[in-house]
Known about the structure:
It is a single chain. This protein folds into two domains: 14-216 and 333-351, Citrate Synthase, domain 1; 223-322, CATH 1.10.230.10. Helix content is 54%, strand content 3%. Strand 2 and strand 3 (33-34) form a beta hairpin. The longest helix is centred in the first third of the chain and has 25 residues, at 115-139. The protein contains 16 helices and three strands. It has a three-stranded antiparallel β-sheet. Helix 2 (44-53) runs parallel beside helix 8. The model has no long low-confidence stretch (mean pLDDT 95). By secondary structure, the protein is an all-alpha fold.
Amino acid sequence: xxxxxxxxxxIPAAKSSISFVDxxxxxxxxxxxxxxxxxEHSSFLETAFLLLFNHLPTNFELDQFTRNIFHHRRIKYRIxxxxxxxxxxxxxxxxxxxxxxxxxxxxxVHDVREETTRYLTAIRLIAKLPTIVAAFARLRRGDExxxxxxxxxxxxxxxxxxxxxxxxxxxxxxxxVCLILHAEHTMNASTFSGMVTASTLAAxxxxxxxxxxxxxxxxxxxxxxxxxxxxxxxxxxKDIPLFVEDKLSKKEKIMGFGHRIYKVKDPRAxxxxxxxxxxxxxxxxxxxxxxxxxxxxxMESQVGPKGIxxxxxxxxxxxxxxMGIETDLFTPIFAMxxxxxxxxxxxxxxxxxxxxxxxxxxxxxHRRPYQPIEERIKGQCEx
Length: 383
Ligand code: ACO
């Protein structure tokens, strides 16, 4: 009889040199570098390069990487046609997943282990995800997509394609750091699902579309969206103790809290909180930041000692909300950043591939008789 570990909790599924997390000390490193340092000094594209190639780029390498990304930001008109044909009330994560899967049909990959092909697929995916997200956001409102602008940085360009306005430097920096903080996080549900797909030697477009599907759920990337909906439901600070008590007594989850690995406050949430505070308008009587701080205090007193503390999604949604971004775009933005980490894991998997094929513990019946259809009674298919 095998041991059974629900959710594979605590079971290493790979050896990896991409990132490291210590959930008790609150440490997260990408390729050995603390995220706080990257948040302060790096940019999303530089961090993506680091994750993919295991070293910080030289000026020349970063320039070439950036130019390649910029060159591939446009999407084919047939991808735009595909996005146009999707229901406008559908979730943008589903649109993103469909478009990324479709990219694989336009750019077939013959040998996933070939280096140039890998480089080009990584460039295309990092380059095109923001264009797809912004295009769907505009198309569903009846607006034409805005083509990328080569004079803008990666973060500036995304916000410009989304809003038709070039953001100021402070906002661009905050958004870029949010992308850095979302770019990678060791083994997790979406990374694992991508690695399972990669282990069949499927192409990176298919791998990334698997990961996008997995990220969508409210227990994973979808939590940032759920946090804003939850805070909007709370009328005022004084309702928070009752709100928390009620949820906990019904064994309901409070979104943006808890993590399989972190037992202290998620280090990414600490950086995010500073930005949320920076963007907060203290005169706003419905300030989500004020409510979030009060909720964090209440949660700390009620479940903090159990290790249930804010995760990255708790403050990221508040930042994007303050930036005027629609709530259902939060998770696609998460995907735009995480694609760097997913690709790094995908390539690591190709390198030392071993097909994922776990076992199961069967607990169903044996030798069940086949019953002719005329003898079957609804809800009782045997005996
Ligand atoms: N609110 C209230 N109680 C919680 C929360 C929460 N957010 N998170 C965990 N708990 C409680 C559970 O009810 C459970 O209590 P019990 O032991 O009395 O039964 C205990 O803590 C363990 O919870 P599990 O869900 O079993 O722990 P797990 O490690 O699987 O949870 C998870 C991790 C799924 C993230 C969970 O904390 C959760 O659902 N949080 C809310 C959703 C969320 O914010 N997800 C984003 C995670 S970050 C990311 O994916 C980028």
